Amino acid sequence: MDKRFYKHLGPFSLLELLDGLDVDIPEGQFCDISIENAAPSDLAGASDISFVDGKGATRKAADCRAAVCLVSAQNAEHIGKAGGLPLVSKYPQADFSVILGRLYKALGYGDGANNIFKDVDIGRGVVIGDGAQIGAGTRIGPNSVIGPGVVIGENCEIGSNVVIEFSVIGNNCKIYHGAVLGGAGFGVAKSAMGGMDIPHIGIVELGNDITVGCQTTIDRAMFGSTNIGDGTKLDNGIQIAHNVKIGRNCLFAGHVGIAGSCNIGDGVIMGGRAGLPDHINVGDGAMLVANAGPIRDVPAGEVWGGQPATPIREQLRQLSAIRKLAKPKPKS
Amino acid sequence: MDKRFYKHLGPFSLLELLDGLDVDIPEGQFCDISIENAAPSDLAGASDISFVDGKGATRKAADCRAAVCLVSAQNAEHIGKAGGLPLVSKYPQADFSVILGRLYKALGYGDGANNIFKDVDIGRGVVIGDGAQIGAGTRIGPNSVIGPGVVIGENCEIGSNVVIEFSVIGNNCKIYHGAVLGGAGFGVAKSAMGGMDIPHIGIVELGNDITVGCQTTIDRAMFGSTNIGDGTKLDNGIQIAHNVKIGRNCLFAGHVGIAGSCNIGDGVIMGGRAGLPDHINVGDGAMLVANAGPIRDVPAGEVWGGQPATPIREQLRQLSAIRKLAKPKPKS
Amino acid sequence: MDKRFYKHLGPFSLLELLDGLDVDIPEGQFCDISIENAAPSDLAGASDISFVDGKGATRKAADCRAAVCLVSAQNAEHIGKAGGLPLVSKYPQADFSVILGRLYKALGYGDGANNIFKDVDIGRGVVIGDGAQIGAGTRIGPNSVIGPGVVIGENCEIGSNVVIEFSVIGNNCKIYHGAVLGGAGFGVAKSAMGGMDIPHIGIVELGNDITVGCQTTIDRAMFGSTNIGDGTKLDNGIQIAHNVKIGRNCLFAGHVGIAGSCNIGDGVIMGGRAGLPDHINVGDGAMLVANAGPIRDVPAGEVWGGQPATPIREQLRQLSAIRKLAKPKPKS
Q1: Is the pLDDT of residue B183 over 90?
Q2: How far is residue C17's CA from residue C35's CA, in Å, rounded to a whole number?
Q3: From the candidates C115, C126, C177, C239, which should be mutated to test the interface with A, based on the most A CB atoms within 10 A?
Q4: Are A194 and B271 a contacting pair at CB < 8 A?
Q5: How distant, in Å, are the alpha carbons of A44, A198, C264 from that of A12?
Q6: Mean pLDDT of C250-256
Q7: Interface residue C235 vs chain A (CB under 8 A)
Q8: pLDDT tens digits, C152-187
Q9: Spatial CA neighbour of A322 closest among C53, B25, B322
Q10: What average pLDDT does this structure show over B5-22?
Q11: Residues A329, A320: Cα–Cα separation, whole Å
């Protein structure tokens, strides 16, 4: 949790934190546990609350070292020796989401009255939140919005109607018109009421010499950061989801879409409208041609195409076979 | 026609309304008909003008109960007994579009001086039109634009640089940065001058607990409303066209596109960049995988993929067959 | 270079212009050449600097009439008799990009104090740069940004949160909410430091009666202009890259993407999410169905579909053949 962007409202006693939630609390002894933070199960420590659910829950439960861990009934027994108290919940992630909202609060914009920027060209109508830092030589186009605590390096060019929140940006970056950095990622937890948005308390981190095209969106991480490496260039209308890691010197053409938690190496090229589902790895120097849609990892240096994408040679073989198969038979 | 958003400029005499249009007006008797409203042929009543053209024109003409109906020459004879005067036009929809522009006018922003909002957190640079209503506990990010007459419920979170016009939004909704609600739908009528934009005098209606991602666009209806049901969550960069109906608790991933007048049930899941052409129905609980592009209705509960999309089992069979076919023959 | 939008900072002596660049300068005689402009190799004249690299470099070198031409070592000898001095560079386009930045500078917004518009309805929060011209009867929605020197014709409707820079727009156009016209195109030159953004010193030119949907982006040209012809209608979320030429009365549905330098005729229809890679020609009256992705030119009047796209009849044959091939064999 980055204090430049979020306020920590804790600690709370466990009972306060669980107030109103449909969670089975064992009698007496645990009520006065003090909970400092909420964290994912692999990062939570002895004063934290966490949750375990979904794919790999058994293993995650065994490894969880949180003071308190929300679990479904069938996973409660798997909470390991290192872990603390398992609390049974019908909707562990939804309850955890409510708790996140109780522990952390995004800082407000304030009135910006104390912001002092030296050698920064700020367009008319720009709104800047309290505590933002902007480096010398940077230009911000009219009507853009820079959130509280945002850090922008030197000699950057921020276009018009840009929104940047929860972000730390290096030097010599260009963020073009209408781009949005730091929006909440898309994550929905099942709850008794239907779906519940999972709070995102992470950030976006951009290195140096990065270009972000018009209308491109880069979501902040759920925890931790969404990262883009030095020298990477993104065209217009691209969507980069929460927790994605993109290496250095990548080139992504228009309308590319990267779903959550993908891990993309250095020097990767993606043609127009290529897209990745979540948790896909793409190795250094790989290339996805336009419209490519891999559904498994793409090894370094390979060129892939198609939906679902395969190595391009395989795609060409398939296309050739289909063409041959479809060829009208000459009448004899 | 919703008076919160549009001003009714009628009634007009038929002659006034048709002034300058290339329409054959029968002599004398009809000039002093007074026309109150313009409406689609299935909704128009005894004081209205309508038009009939395109697919199903013969049936529509027979059913039309408008006082006056613009029709092409070959459809004039089909205007039924219930209907009024058929007026022959070379371009019935284009002429009807001109008439819409004469009968209805969107309300202006005014200066917002009389807007009073209680317990609403309005960011710097926000512009709000006259007559907008915003519920307690709602927050609006900097530089967003809320059109005249817009209704936003309680405890909503509106991001920065959002545009909301011609919309009625429930409680606990989140509309993220750069989203646009209530833009004119995309509809073009053939005219003597080429294409003419068809005026859209409908609205957008959102239920409760809805999330709309960054840069997502939801167009208002031509007539009536574009609807999204309670609990539906839309990711970034999605396009929802005019007159679409989306049910409750749907989940749409990034870059999904829904063309005009689609009808989508409850609990429908659409993967990244799945898309629907116009007038497609998707049943409750159906799932479209990433990149799926159905060209016919998708039954409830089914999982579809591919372009054109089919049930996923059929897709997998096709992929398997193609792979086998394309496999290089071992040299004997 | 259009003086309404850019300031010419030259002429410079060759030595000034090359200062700090890793270019082999032949001794003595050329240092005091005065360079007026930088231009592409086919347009550069006797007082200009240019570069030659990449595909077709040999031919381009032979035809180049620039006073000075940056070339890679292997192309230096091809500089023709008509041409001037070849200067050997490891990264001709990157060095040329640096030079562009030294010769031309975009005009700033200024304070707009001298802008006088007659009969223009300007919304609250709109920012307009110095020297912009806006015709009578035009309406600009709240919080939009109109760059310095921009020309907008009469009776246009500009939405809210729109950004228009480096653009000349005709009469009766509609530019809907969140659209961005005139952003820098996406072009990256290889340099010693990785990729370098290529400056774009061109413009966007729109004819009359054009509609640009919400969130649609139209990039300005590298040199010259990106053009859209009279009566063309673009839906939401479309991306039009630099130097694209689109004819009259085209209809593009949502999420269409057109890569750089495509040339599209009159009356072309593109379904949702159809896309073109760069330098593709599409003839008059051609139609691309939804999701179509041609990788070669599309002849006038033809209907194409698929990825890669083919004439629709061929697509249907292929689909039919695949279906037949994948059909489960009845057990005998």
Answers
A1: yes
A2: 8
A3: C239
A4: no
A5: 16, 20, 63
A6: 98
A7: no
A8: 999 999 999 999 999 999 999 999 999 999 999 999
A9: B322
A10: 94
A11: 16
The span from the CA of B218 to the CA of C106, in Å, is 35
Q: Report the candidate in B190, B188, B228 with the shortest Cα–Cα distance to residue B209.
A: B228
DSSP letter, residue C74: G
Q: C3 and C21 in contact (C-beta within 8 Å)?
A: no
CB-side exposure of A230: number of CA atoms within 13 Å? 5
Chain A residues touching residue C321 (CB < 8 angstroms): 322, 325-326
Mind spelling out the 3-state secondary structure of C200-218? CCCEEEECCCCEECCCCEE
* Chain A residue numbers touching C145 (CB-CB < 8 A): 125, 141-143, 160-161, 177
Kindly tell me the burial class for residue A181, based on how many C-beta atoms sit within 10 Å of its own C-beta (0-12, 13-18, 19 or more): buried
Distances (CA, A) of A239 to B8, B14, B266, C91: 41, 51, 26, 31
The pLDDT tens digits of the residues spanning C61-87 come to: 988 899 999 999 988 888 877 668 899
Closest Cα in chain A, distance from residue C117 (Å): 19
For residue C169, the cross-strand partners are C152, C206
Identify residue B243 by its one-letter amino acid code.
N
Q: Encoding tokens for residue B216?
A: 């997502």
> Which of C284, C234, C249 lies closest to C263, judged by CA?
C284
Which residues, 6 or more positions from B323, have their beta carbon under 8 angstroms from its beta carbon?
Answer: A318
Q: Is some CB atom of chain C closer than 8 A to the CB atom of B193? A: yes
What is the DSSP annotation of A99-141? Answer: HHHHHEEEPP----TT---SS-EE-TT-EE-TT-EE-TT-EE-
Per the CB < 8 Å rule, is B233 touching A186?
A: yes
pLDDT in tens, B62-89: 888 999 999 999 888 888 776 688 999 9
User: Could you tell me if C289 and C275 are in contact, meaning their C-beta atoms sit under 8 angstroms apart?
Assistant: no
* B307-327 pLDDT per residue, tens: 999 999 999 999 999 999 998
H or E element in which residue C319 lies: helix C312-326
Contact (Cβ atoms closer than 8 angstroms) between residue A299 and residue A281: no
Catalogue the active-site residues of A.
242
Question: How many CB atoms are closer than 10 A to CB A226?
Answer: 30
Could you count the other beta carbons within 10 Å of the beta carbon of residue A332? 3
Query: Which of B111, B195, B239 is facing C255, going by the closest CB pair?
Result: B239
Average pLDDT value for residue range A200-209: 98
Does the pLDDT value for residue B328 go beyond 90? no
Where is B135: in which H helix or E strand? none
Q: How many CB pairs under 8 A join B and C?
A: 133
Mutate to test the interface with C, among B98, B109, B180 (most CBs of C within 10 A): B180
Residue identified by tokens 């939004």 is B169
| Percent of chain C's residues with pLDDT above 70 | 98
**How far apart are the C-alpha atoms of C115 and A114, rounded to whole Å?**
32
Catalytic residue ranges of B? 242
Pick from A151, A152, A195, A128: nearest CA to A5:
A151
Write the single-letter amino acid at B67: A
- Closest partner CB to A195 (pick from B249, B271, B319): B249
Q: What is the pLDDT of residue B77?
A: 84
Q: Judge contact between A226 and A243, C-beta under 8 A.
A: yes
Best of A124, A239, A240 to disrupt the B interface (most B CBs within 10 Å) is: A239
CA distance C225 to C170: 14
Closest Cα in chain A, distance from residue B40 (Å): 36
pLDDT tens sequence across B221-273: 999 999 999 999 999 999 999 999 999 999 999 999 999 999 999 999 999 99
Q: Is the pTM of this model over 0.95?
A: yes
Contact indicator for A80, A62 with CB cutoff of 8 Å: yes
- Contact call for residues A216 and A179 (beta carbons, < 8 A): yes
